[in-house]
Amino acid sequence: GNSVTQMEGPVTLSEEAFLTINCTYTATGYPSLFWYVQYPGEGLQLLLKATKADDKGSNKGFEATYRKETTSFHLEKGSVQVSDSAVYFCALSDTAGNQFYFGTGTSLTVIP
Amino acid sequence: GAVVSQHPSWVICKSGTSVKIECRSLDFQATTMFWYRQFPKQSLMLMATSNEGSKATYEQGVEKDKFLINHASLTLSTLTVTSAHPEDSSFYICSAREPGRRNTEAFFGQGTRLTVV
């Protein structure tokens, strides 16, 4: 079946530190992969996505590359800011596009 | 991009009463919408898949009679928490996706914070 495994949190970093949040997946066929961000008290917002192997999604300084050989989609940012403090969810959409599967979420706190 | 609007953003109700939460897709027709529940500092738990014109598909462990879902039109799905109890207090989120487009993201409502007192 389809599933997403995400790095356990919480993660606390100093401002301008490098961020990596690991995400691996299990899926049949050719899923699309997503990273969502949730700020306190809000719904989820799409951060970036990749729809096929070797695609790189990027937005607001965040990047993630769809690695089929390692079934991974790790989120990275070179220099985090306090405003990046949020919960990050890795997700996949199955080949049929009918269902989303979410990781458990990783809470990130960036301190000045 | 497509927008999903959820209402209300927060609600407080007395134990034993029912609460209705609306989820609307504002600029696309959603044949399918999803309802999630999120406990504090935890991930999203899919409760049910709402299908326009037919019965909702509930996930295992979710009480159908407790969480009534109605997908009245291609742009509106509602979740009614019936006879609410304090343990139903949670953050409920809906999402929708443009049909037939596998590579598009799911769009999420802003969530509803339900507090049952």
What does this structure look like?
The complex is a heterodimer of chains A (112) and B (117). Chain A is mainly beta and 112 residues long. Chain A is built from no helices and 12 strands. Chain A has strands at residues 3-6, 11-14, 19-21, 23-26, 32-38, 44-50, 56-59, 62-65, 75-77, 86-93, 100-102, 106-111. In chain A, the strands form 3 sheets. In chain A, strands 2, 5, 6, 10, 11 and 12 form a 6-stranded mixed sheet that branches. In chain A, strands 3-9-8-7 form a 4-stranded antiparallel sheet, with no helix packed on it. In chain A, strand 5 (32-38) and strand 6 (44-50) form a beta hairpin. Chain A is globular. The N and C termini of chain A lie far apart (42 Å). The mean pLDDT of chain A is 92. Chain B is globular, with a radius of gyration of 14 Å. By secondary structure, chain B is an all-beta fold. Chain B is built from no helices and 11 strands. The model of chain B has no long low-confidence stretch (mean pLDDT 90). Chain B has strands at 4-7, 10-13, 19-25, 32-38, 44-51, 57-58, 67-73, 76-81, 90-96, 107-108, 112-116. Chain A binds chain B through residues 32, 34, 36, 41-46, 49, 51, 89, 91, 93, 95-100, 102-105, 107, and chain B through 6, 32, 34, 41-44, 49, 93, 95, 97, 100-103, 105-111, 113.
Topology:
The complex is a heterodimer of chains A (112) and B (117).
Chain A: E1 3-6, E2 11-14, E3 19-21, E4 23-26, E5 32-38, E6 44-50, E7 56-59, E8 62-65, E9 75-77, E10 86-93, E11 100-102, E12 106-111
Parallel strand pairs in A: 2-12
Antiparallel strand pairs in A: 1-4, 3-9, 5-6, 5-10, 7-8, 8-9, 10-11, 10-12
Chain B: E1 4-7, E2 10-13, E3 19-25, E4 32-38, E5 44-51, E6 57-58, E7 67-73, E8 76-81, E9 90-96, E10 107-108, E11 112-116
Parallel strand pairs in B: 2-11
Antiparallel strand pairs in B: 1-3, 3-8, 4-5, 4-9, 5-6, 7-8, 9-10, 9-11
